[in-house]
């Protein structure tokens, strides 16, 4: 197995289980809330949709911090790591007040807007849920940035453990608090579990050797400049996520025209599809971390990393397509769907194969663009892809759910073609010197050569004789930068 592929697998596996834990906890949460009736389910589902939208906002801080910390780690620059951490923290602090405080003050108008009027049966429950969940976004945002710092430092296992802790507590607290307080109890259980995990994460952050060494260094940038850099790095990733979410919601409106059975089947089938797509996004995060680290160390390996990410993503996509094709019926029956809904959902899942394969390759390769600073191009491709998908879905909806699948596959194929062309152009334009891409201030040729001669090769490279004998500078910073997480 390629060294790059081993690194991608090592980084991606914990990320996948972290994402899976959140989905599993959300499903079980809905099971408990369902006992309170349909209005309660609608209120909690509405709060979940708002949180998904807010995730796109905080990704600007979390993803930007991950890339900048990984790049600074590769450059062996503790000052740049400290600046990246400061920038992400400051951006998070800037985003929290308008969302948490503003959301609390506007909770009732927000519920009215999203439910189509204050007379909706779920309005009072949604307002009560927002009164806890929206202020709780302070914890949600802080946890996302903390995870981004740890992932940039090469540690994807600690965020996975924190997710297990938070979601485990939510599963324990849900029946107790929902029984005591109803719908607000579900929001309270979520905020409480995340708060405990955040406290544990802050302790893990203080114990991390790499980040402890960075705290002792002078920050490479002032806090305001670091904040702007983090926002500029993370904004395209945030836009990409929000546009995809908006496209998915718009597609629901197209499916809804097909009938009640089709929309119910589509809603259940997409939950099964998300279990597969989370694996693609875990590879994307791993590729972004690995590419940024290599670029910071002075190695532009985007061709090799891109090839391995594409291979890994394609393998996962083909496997997911095959499993869903063969197990579509049992999967739909596991949701307890009625026979008509189960049959329509199974047909949809069996037709998803081309879309999943194309999406897996696109998402995996996109991680390389994120890690090497080319994410603005991804946001543009995503916008165009969504604009292509919706008219296609309208045109092909006459064929039912298979027509929707075809529209999704064609739009994703167009995005893959655009990304492939962009990848080729990016590789052709790679400069001979990477000094401009490295973290920190620019250096002259002599200084860069001197620094490069003392830099240890990254984990993927073969060790030098000097490194094998233990000579050269092996500080705690360098040792911690290569831990497996």
TrEMBL record:
Keywords: Antiport, Cell membrane, Ion transport, Membrane, Transmembrane, Transmembrane helix, Transport. The chain crosses the membrane at residues 15-33, 53-72, 84-105, 125-150, 162-181, 309-329, 341-365, 377-395, 401-422. The keyword Membrane applies. Residues 442-452, 461-472 have a biased composition (Low complexity). It is found in: Cell membrane. Residues 433-485 are annotated as: Disordered. Belongs to the multi antimicrobial extrusion (MATE) (TC 2.A.66.1) family. This is Probable multidrug resistance protein NorM.
